[in-house]
Amino acid sequence: MSGERRNVYMVSGGVTKFAKATPNMDFRLRVKKAFDYAMNDINADLSMIDGSVASYFSDHFQRQLMSGIMVQDYLGLTPKPSKRIEGGGATGGLAFQTGYEEIASGRMDTCVVYGFETMSHVNTWKGNEFIALASDTNFDYPVGGFYTGYYAMMAVRHMYEFGTTVEQLAQVSVKNHGNAIYNPYSQSPMKLTVEDVRNSPMVSYPLTRLDICTMSDGAAVAILASEEKAFELTDHPILIKGIGTGTDSMRLSDRPFGKVPLLPNEKESDYRNLKYPGVHSFRAGRTAAKEAYEMAGITDPLKEIDAVELHDAYTSSEIQTYEDLGFCKYGEGGQFVEEGKADINGEVAVNFSGGLLASGHPVGATGIMQAVFMFWQLQRSIKKHFGNDKLQLTNPKRGLIHSHAGTGTYVTVTVMEAVR
Amino acid sequence: MTINPNAKMPESQQGTEIYNFDPLIVKYHYEIDYIHSYAQDSEFFKALGQKKLLGSKCKKCGYVYATPRAHCMMCGAETEWYELPKEGRIHSFTTCYFGSEEFLPETPFHLVLVEFDGVNSLFLGRLIGADTEDLYIGMPIRAKFRRNLKISPTDVYFVPTEEAGKKK
Q1: Helix A67-75 crosses helix A27-41 at what angle (to 10 degrees)?
Q2: Is residue B154 less than 8 Å (CB to CB) from chain A?
Q3: Is B111–A144 a contact, with Cβ atoms under 8 angstroms apart?
Q4: Which of A14, A359, A412, B94 is the most buried (most CB within 10 A)?
Q5: A21 vs A17: CA distance, rounded Å
Q6: Rounded to whole angstroms, what are the CA distances from A113 to A66, A234, B64?
Q7: Contact of A217 with A118, CB cutoff 8 Å
Q8: Tell me: the pLDDT tens digits for A345-366?
Q9: Element (H, E) at A378
Q10: Contact A127, B102 (CB under 8 A)
């Protein structure tokens, strides 16, 4: 599938502190703050930037069309090329990969990917309504109208197929909120127990308030560059080693019951009786992982990947995603978290930043935020940016970021690698 | 030609609701009517009024959908309408205690993904007539239809069959 591509590196990043509402800044100023942080970190000026990609999900939240150009203009990047990318919850991951493509194709030598969302203009339940408009408005919105409900049905089926427990779901929440305590950018750092999670208000059975991410205001910026430019701009660029994208049907009801697309570390006999993906798994996530692993030459993901930032809008989706990414077999995701394999000191540090559950989920910024946290992790500069090194792995070589839209309709996987 | 240096904008009694002064936060209202066509899916909604649940079957590869879709996802060919059985089983379920603003007054409500014999895909609906603790995967359920249509997929809903309470 792949033709000739240039190597692409991430050279800098910046994130605003995510919060429920930050009315003292609008989306332009928020992006500007993250942008200046990223630019200052490599002493870059505007003349060094060839173009940009704007990442934001909803036009409803701000009731402002063409927000992208308003950011481009505010940052002083006009008249350089830019475009807006949108794909629900995966908007950030898709935009990051679009930035990659701008460089890999040779069109640009440097590209800024900026993401933002301002969700505080409406109340939480109106916000949920806007988000639910990203489900089929003829058939799904009028019946459910609530994304947590859709994911809850997937979780119930995962529990039925594989014996996953609500306590295992809760352990994801405990882990991610706990990691966030050391991330000064996070929205909801919390020391929790499994009981706390189970005792918080039920939103959609079996998902409680603490199984679900919050709404946020926030912005994040990643600067990408070609090989030649990357090493001019910084001594520690991070290579984008592989990208993959998958899709699936808009309606959960239309998902097929077929065979598992296998990763190199799996065989057909592993899944003799499993109908796939049904509504228990994300075929788009598996498809994205397969493409990214092939490009990055990864054959044993658990051994070859040190850190992961994945789309845990719900605790259940983190467990489902371990399986899509091949860190364990389908059905073993619950045990994977229970046995501590996803802990910061486990076999692969999953959502060391706190993930969406605890860092926040300002949709268009989220996928870029993951890239920034992973960039700092692989650069071993967590201490510089977080003010403490609790979340810094000793010698991380390879990281994976994973961005995901409504019930797994668009999913992106990007593999990043430390080169020195 | 009009040149009037004394021109004055008319004043009104309509003001703006202020939420906060620093920063200045105001409230405004937004409302709109949509003229929405169900287009190629229209037959499905019309059939609900005749107490029929229509799915689609691919004319070429024979794949059977429990949902309306005019073209097949598997092979791209045209599909034809066919009537789904009235009885099916719960493939998965949840109870929503919160929801979007529009549906918040209806909470709590159950959502079910329904599987039908001989059909390759599922159907999303609401279920009434059972408590959360009564629901289980495989539970036999039956489609019922509203008498006064809302021209919405909620014109069909599901209830447990007589047998539903017997086995678990």
Answers
A1: 40
A2: yes
A3: yes
A4: A359
A5: 11
A6: 16, 18, 42
A7: yes
A8: 999 999 999 999 999 999 999 9
A9: helix A363-379
A10: no
